[in-house]
């Protein structure tokens, strides 16, 4: 029997969290990508998300619609409660996560695992510029927050994404096996 789990993908802005998640979902069809609720303007690309206003987000949070939620970059992000059902059914779920919210994630989800992606600062700057989703001042703020420590005592796998994306995807696909019981 397979136990489901949530794998929180973390790392600095521009490291490749969304790209790696999408690539892994292509090579491992059983992987489910978590669709986050974000107070970001709709259709800015990078990931599929539910765009809501701040008022809508606060209402959803108050109604208990998020398993975990946090604020960052002047936005709010929520992981929907529905992810719990997917995990309960044995789903291998991947979510773009905040390093600040990892402790809450570990307290919320069974078999919680962290995929920590890394890249050199100059790589991050080049990638954020090329992505073009944020303004230059937003990019500067994101780069200033690149270094953050991770909580101790969690199941953390660290993988460099400095090299070719396909190489990272292949490494991650090998690491994120479901939990057998
Ligand atoms: N290994 C890689 N090599 C080259 N470009 C990459 C690689 N990984 C991601 N990118 C590019 O870098 C940019 C940032 O990636 P993204 O997945 O949006 O990062 P994050 O979600 O961590 O902010 C995107 O334009 C993406 O196409
Ligand atoms: O606490 P931190 O680990 O610094 O993370 C803060 C936020 O940054 C990322 O957001 P988002 O996907 O909007 O930005 P990014 O693609 O530039 O990383 C991540 O998903 C968190 O929501």
From TrEMBL:
GO cellular component, one term: cytosol
The protein's Enzyme Commission number: 2.7.4.23
SUPFAM superfamilies the UniProt entry points to: P-loop containing nucleoside triphosphate hydrolases (SSF52540)
TM helices/strands, residue ranges: none
Origin: domain of life: Bacteria
GO-annotated molecular function: ATP binding; ribose 1,5-bisphosphate phosphokinase activity
Domain Guanylate kinase-like: 4-177
Pathway: Metabolic intermediate biosynthesis; 5-phospho-alpha-D-ribose 1-diphosphate biosynthesis; 5-phospho-alpha-D-ribose 1-diphosphate from D-ribose 5-phosphate (route II): step 3/3
Pfam families on file: Guanylate_kin
Binding annotation for ATP: 11-18
Segments forming a coiled coil: none
Biological processes, Gene Ontology terms: 5-phosphoribose 1-diphosphate biosynthetic process; organic phosphonate metabolic process
Keywords from the named record: ATP-binding, Kinase, Nucleotide-binding, Transferase
Enzyme class: transferase
Reaction it catalyzes: alpha-D-ribose 1,5-bisphosphate + ATP = 5-phospho-alpha-D-ribose 1-diphosphate + ADP
Physiological role: Catalyzes the phosphorylation of ribose 1,5-bisphosphate to 5-phospho-D-ribosyl alpha-1-diphosphate (PRPP).
Family: Belongs to the ribose 1,5-bisphosphokinase family.
Protein name from the UniProt record: Ribose 1,5-bisphosphate phosphokinase PhnN
Species this chain originates from: Marivivens niveibacter
């Amino acid at each position: 029997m397979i136990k489901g789990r949530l794998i929180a993908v973390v790392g600095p802005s521009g490291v490749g969290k969304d790209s790696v998640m999408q690539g892994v979902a292509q090579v491992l069809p059983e992987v489910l990508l978590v669709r986050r609720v974000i107070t970001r303007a709709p259709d800015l690309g990078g990931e599929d998300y539910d765009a809501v206003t701040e008022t809508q987000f606060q209402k959803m949070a108050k109604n208990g619609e998020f398993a975990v939620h946090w604020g960052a970059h002047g936005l709010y992000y929520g992981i929907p409660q529905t992810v719990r059902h997917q995990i309960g059914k044995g789903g291998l779920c991947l979510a773009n996560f905040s390093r600040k919210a990892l402790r809450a994630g570990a307290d919320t989800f069974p078999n919680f695992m962290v995929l920590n992606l890394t890249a050199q600062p100059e790589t991050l700057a080049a990638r954020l510029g090329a992505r073009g989703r944020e303004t230059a001042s937003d990019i500067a703020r994101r780069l200033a927050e690149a270094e953050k420590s991770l909580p101790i005592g969690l199941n953390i796998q660290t993988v460099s994404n400095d090299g070719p994306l396909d190489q990272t995807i292949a490494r991650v696909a090998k690491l994120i096996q479901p939990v057998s019981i």
